[in-house]
C-alpha cells in the first residue's frame, strides 16, 4: 500500500463519512465525562469535548448543567484543554485544570459560581497539575504535580507529558536513571486564603493519585520509582502533610486505585484489582481504618467497582461493571454492606469504565449514559427515573446509528466449560457476514455497550460484522476471572475467542470462509498471535502490538508488568517469553497482516510492529507496516485517523472481501 493515500477514492469516502458524522457537531459539545455535582445538588459540572474542525483531537471545555434539566452552558473556552472541574465545599467556586497558557502544561484555575468573568489562575505549580481536590473545610487544595518528563499511561496515549521544547534536530533523545524529579509526581498543598503553595509529600514518594482523608491527612497511591512500571507495586499510604511523612495502610499483591477518604477522616476506601493499565482499575472495594489499618472487604454483589465517591461520613456511591452492565451501589461504611440502586442497559461514565457523582445525600447520582444506538447524555439518576440534564445528540448521531445494522449480545461456552459473553455488531444486509474478531486491550479491560469507535464504524459501514468478546481476563466477572489471564496470556483466552467464532458460525451469523482479526495493544498482540495458532484468519490488522516479549520486557516502559503477567524474568530459549512471542512463530503464519504503531509509544514501541512485519516478509506473507510520526499508543488525531481507517478497510477489502 502506498505511503500517501490522500488521493485515493477510499480515503475520500472515509473522510466524507467522518464529515457527515462530525460536522453537525462542530462548535458544540458532543461528548462528556468527569461529571461532578455541586454540594447542594443543583448544578452538574463536567468536561465536555468539542471538535471545531477535522484536525487534531477534541478539546475539553468545562460545562455546567442545571440538575433540574432546565439547560446547560459551556463556561470555559480554552484555548487548548480545560478539564477536571471540582467544587469548593461551599459551592461558591468551581476550580479546574487548563493548559491555556502553555500547551501541554496544565495549571490550576477557578471560576466563581454564578458570576460572569474570566477564570483566575490560582497558583504557579512546579510542573504539570494532573489532579486537584478541595479539603473538606475548603481552606486548602491538594495538587498532584507531575514533572515535565513524566510518562503518560498507555491508556491515555503513552509518550511523555509536557510541552514540546524546540531543540536543534541533532539533539539526541535521552533517558537516564538520574533526573527522577523531572519524571516524578509529587503532592502539593495550596492555602486558598494566602496563596501559599508547598510540597506535602515525602521526597521519596512518587504520588500517582491522592485524596483528602479528613482535613488533616491525605490518602495516596505512591511508589518509590517514577516510571510507569513502578505503579504496579504502588502502595496505599496515609500522608501527614505538615510533617511530610507517610504511613503505609495497604500493600497488595495486585494493584490499587481510586483511593478516597471520608470527610471526617474515619475511613478510607480503595479499589484493589488485577490491572494491566494505570487508570483502568476495577475490582474489589476495600474500606480501611486509617488509625488501626484494619481492612474490610465490601460485598459488591458481583460488581467490579471502577469508581467510588463519599456522600457523607458514612456512605459511598460505588459504580462499576457486572457482566455487560454498569451497576451503581449504595455502600454503608458502618457495616461494609452494599445495596444495588441502578442497573444500566448501555454504557456509562464517558470514560474507560463507569464513573459517577453523588447528587445530594440520598441515592441519586449524575453520570453520562450512552449506547450503540444512543448519543451521550449527562443524566441524573434517582431510583428508576433518569432525568437528562445535557443531551449531546446532533444530526451526526443519526448518521452514526444509521450505518449500523444492529447489535446482539452473545453468550457461549469455552472449551473448558467457562461461560463467555460479548457483543456482535452487524452491518446492513443478510447473514452470514464477513466477520472481524475485535480483541480489546489490556488484557484486563472490557467491551461495554459504547457507540462503535471510528475505525470499527468504518468497517461496519463497508459490510463487516464486528465480534467483541469479553474473554477471561475481562472486567465484570470478578477478580478470579480477571486473574485467569495472568501467567497465561495467549493461552486460555485463545480458546475463548475461537469457540466464540465457532458459535457465530453455528448460529449462521459468521461466514467461516471470511474471518478476520484486529485489535490494539493487547488486541494487537492477539492479532499477531492468533494467526500463528489457527489457520482460519483471512486477514489481520494489528495496532500498537506486542510481537516479541523479550524486547517488550526491556524495550518498553511496561517491563515490570510483563514480568508479572508472564512467568517472571526472561530466560534463554524457553518459558512464556519464547512460547508466547508471535515473532518467533511467524513461520506458522500465512495471514496477510497490516501493522500500525505510533512513533512516540513507550508502552508498545513501534519496533514491535516492525519486527513482526519483517518476520512475515521473510516468510513470504503479505504485510504492511505504518508508523505514525505524531502518535503514541494508538492513533487519536485527525487527519491520521483518516489514514489508519483507510488502510484497515483497504486491507480487509483486499484480503477478505465482504462477498466472495
| Physical arrangement of strands within the biggest beta sheet | 30-31-33-32-34-35-36-37
- The assigned structural class equals alpha+beta
**Tell me, what's the shape?**
globular
Residue share in helix: 10-25%
Rg from Cα: 24 Å
Number of helices: 12
How far is the first residue's CA from the last residue's CA?
A: 22 Å
CATH class of the domain at 397-655: Alpha Beta
Average residue-wise pLDDT: 95
Low-confidence stretches: none
What is the CATH superfamily of the domain at 397-655? Alpha/Beta hydrolase fold, catalytic domain
Q: Major sheet: size, sense and barrel closure?
A: 8 strands, mixed
Strand residues, percent: 35-45%
CATH-defined architecture of the domain at 397-655: 3-Layer(aba) Sandwich
Determine the CATH topology of the domain at 397-655.
Rossmann fold
What is the number of beta strands?
A: 37
Folded structure, characterized:
The protein has 660 residues and is of the alpha+beta class. Among the domains are: 123-161 and 181-297, 6 Propeller (Neuraminidase), CATH 2.120.10; 397-655, Rossmann fold. The protein has twelve helices and 37 strands. The strands form eight sheets. An eight-stranded mixed β-sheet has the order 30-31-33-32-34-35-36-37, sandwiched between helices. Strands 25, 26, 27, 28 and 29 form a five-stranded antiparallel β-sheet that branches. The chain has a four-stranded antiparallel β-sheet with strand order 1-2-3-4, with no helix packed on it. α4 crosses α12 and α8 (549-555) packs across α9. It is globular and about 70 Å long. The model has no long low-confidence stretch (mean pLDDT 95).
Amino acid at each position: 500500500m502506498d505511503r500517501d493515500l490522500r488521493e485515493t477514492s477510499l480515503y475520500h469516502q472515509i473522510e466524507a463519512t467522518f464529515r457527515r458524522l462530525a460536522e453537525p457537531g462542530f462548535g458544540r459539545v458532543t461528548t462528556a465525562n468527569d461529571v461532578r455535582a455541586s454540594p447542594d445538588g443543583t448544578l452538574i459540572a463536567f468536561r465536555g469535548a468539542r471538535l471545531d474542525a477535522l484536525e487534531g483531537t477534541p478539546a475539553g471545555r468545562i460545562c455546567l448543567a442545571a440538575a433540574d434539566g432546565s439547560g446547560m452552558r459551556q463556561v470555559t473556552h480554552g484555548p487548548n484543554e480545560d478539564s477536571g472541574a471540582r467544587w469548593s465545599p461551599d459551592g461558591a467556586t468551581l476550580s479546574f485544570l487548563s493548559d491555556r497558557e502553555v500547551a501541554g502544561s496544565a495549571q490550576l484555575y477557578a471560576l466563581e459560581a454564578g458570576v460572569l468573568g474570566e477564570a483566575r489562575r490560582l497558583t504557579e505549580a512546579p510542573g504539570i497539575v494532573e489532579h486537584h481536590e478541595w479539603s473538606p473545610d475548603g481552606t486548602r487544595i491538594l495538587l498532584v504535580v507531575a514533572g515535565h518528563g513524566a510518562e503518560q499511561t498507555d491508556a491515555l496515549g503513552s509518550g511523555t507529558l509536557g510541552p514540546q521544547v524546540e531543540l536543534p534536530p541533532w539533539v539526541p533523545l535521552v533517558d537516564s536513571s538520574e533526573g527522577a524529579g523531572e519524571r516524578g509526581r509529587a503532592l502539593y498543598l495550596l492555602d486558598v486564603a494566602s496563596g501559599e503553595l508547598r510540597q506535602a509529600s515525602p521526597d521519596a514518594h512518587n504520588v500517582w493519585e491522592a485524596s483528602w482523608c479528613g482535613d488533616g491527612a491525605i490518602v495516596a497511591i505512591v511508589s518509590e520509582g517514577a516510571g510507569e512500571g513502578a505503579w504496579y507495586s504502588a502502595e496505599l499510604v496515609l500522608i501527614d502533610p505538615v510533617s511530610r511523612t507517610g504511613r503505609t495502610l495497604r500493600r497488595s499483591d495486585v494493584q490499587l486505585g481510586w483511593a478516597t477518604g471520608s470527610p471526617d477522616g474515619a475511613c478510607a476506601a480503595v479499589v484493589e484489582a488485577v490491572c494491566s493499565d494505570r487508570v483502568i482499575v476495577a475490582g474489589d472495594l476495600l474500606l480501611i481504618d486509617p488509625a488501626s489499618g484494619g481492612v474490610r472487604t465490601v460485598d459488591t454483589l458481583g460488581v467490579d467497582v471502577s469508581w467510588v465517591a463519599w456522600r457523607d461520613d458514612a456512605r459511598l456511591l460505588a459504580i462499576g461493571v457486572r457482566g455487560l452492565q454498569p451497576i451503581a451501589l449504595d455502600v454503608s461504611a458502618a457495616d461494609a454492606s452494599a445495596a444495588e440502586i441502578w442497573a444500566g442497559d448501555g454504557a456509562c461514565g464517558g470514560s474507560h469504565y463507569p464513573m459517577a457523582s453523588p447528587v445530594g445525600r440520598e441515592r441519586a447520582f449524575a453520570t453520562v449514559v450512552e449506547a450503540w444506538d444512543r448519543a451521550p447524555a449527562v443524566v441524573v439518576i434517582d431510583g428508576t427515573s433518569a432525568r437528562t440534564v445535557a443531551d449531546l445528540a446532533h444530526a451526526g448521531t443519526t448518521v452514526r446509528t444509521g450505518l449500523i445494522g444492529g447489535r446482539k449480545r452473545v453468550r457461549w461456552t469455552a472449551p473448558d466449560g467457562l461461560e463467555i459473553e460479548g457483543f456482535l455488531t452487524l452491518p446492513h444486509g443478510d447473514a452470514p457476514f464477513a466477520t472481524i474478531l475485535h480483541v480489546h486491550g489490556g488484557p484486563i479491560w472490557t467491551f461495554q455497550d459504547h457507540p462503535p469507535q471510528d475505525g470499527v464504524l468504518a468497517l461496519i459501514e463497508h459490510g463487516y460484522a464486528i465480534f467483541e468478546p469479553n474473554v477471561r481476563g475481562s472486567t465484570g466477572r470478578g477478580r478470579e476471572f480477571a486473574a485467569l489471564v495472568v501467567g497465561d496470556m495467549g493461552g486460555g483466552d485463545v480458546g475463548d475467542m475461537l469457540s466464540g467464532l465457532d458459535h457465530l458460525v453455528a448460529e449462521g451469523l459468521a461466514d467461516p470462509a471470511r474471518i478476520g482479526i484486529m485489535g490494539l495493544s493487547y488486541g494487537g498482540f492477539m492479532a499477531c498471535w492468533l494467526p500463528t495458532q489457527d489457520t482460519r484468519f483471512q486477514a489481520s490488522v494489528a495496532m500498537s502490538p506486542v510481537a516479541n516479549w523479550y524486547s517488550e520486557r526491556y524495550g518498553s516502559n511496561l517491563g515490570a508488568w510483563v514480568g508479572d503477567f508472564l512467568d517472571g524474568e526472561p530466560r534463554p530459549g524457553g518459558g512464556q517469553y519464547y512460547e508466547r512471542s508471535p515473532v518467533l512463530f511467524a513461520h506458522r503464519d500465512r495471514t496477510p497482516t497490516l501493522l500500525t504503531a505510533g512513533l512516540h509509544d513507550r508502552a508498545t514501541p513501534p519496533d514491535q510492529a516492525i519486527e513482526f512485519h519483517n518476520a512475515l516478509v521473510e516468510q513470504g506473507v503479505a504485510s504492511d507496516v505504518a508508523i505514525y510520526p505524531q502518535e503514541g499508543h494508538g492513533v487519536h488525531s485527525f487527519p491520521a485517523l483518516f489514514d489508519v481507517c483507510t488502510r484497515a478497510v483497504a486491507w480487509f477489502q483486499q484480503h477478505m472481501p465482504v462477498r466472495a
